[in-house]
Every structure is written in structure tokens, then in C-alpha cells.
Specification:
This protein is mostly helical. The protein contains four helices and no strands. Helix 1 runs parallel beside helix 4 and helix 3 packs antiparallel against helix 4. It is flat and about 60 Å long.
Length: 103
Amino acid sequence: MNAGPYVPALLGTAVVAAALAIRTAVGEMRRPGSAREAWAFLRTRRGLFTFLAATCGLGGVVRTTAGPEHLPWALLAGLLTAHLLAGPQVRPPRGQPRRSRDR
């Protein structure tokens, strides 16, 4: 029985995605509402555009260099790139300065 070239890439990305889901679930149990805050970047225009641009760019590079079987990694890398660039914005409570140098 031949599993094909896609199985290792799909298995690897599934493990990483499961780890992210577990991390989100544990954070949600500790602080209700944190999961919505953590993944809200995908609902913004900047976050969605960053995700699509990074995934398309990395997907093109991965497809030409490593083959189509590694495209799930490009999808995961696009998601993590969008999370870093347009991820949750940490805002200080009202009335407090944003940074210590703003005082």
C-alpha cells in the first residue's frame, strides 16, 4: 500500500495545527474570550490580505522548488506570518501610556 508523497507533509502540518489548537484551547480555559482575541486578526482586512499574500507567495516558491506535496507547509507558514504581522494588538488599559517612553 503506497501512501503517496503528501502524507508526511500533511501529517507534519496536522501536528503543528493541533499544537496551535491545543494552545488556543488552554488559553481559552484560563481566560475566557482569549481565543477570539488571538484569532481575530483573520477577520481584519490587513490580516486576511497578509495571509493570502504570504500563502500565495510561499506556495509559488514551494511548488517550484520542493514540489506540490509541500504546499500544506506554505499554508501553515502563511497563517503564522499573518499572525505575526497582523496578530493580536496588545493595548494598555485606558488612561495608561502605550510605552514607557510616552510618559
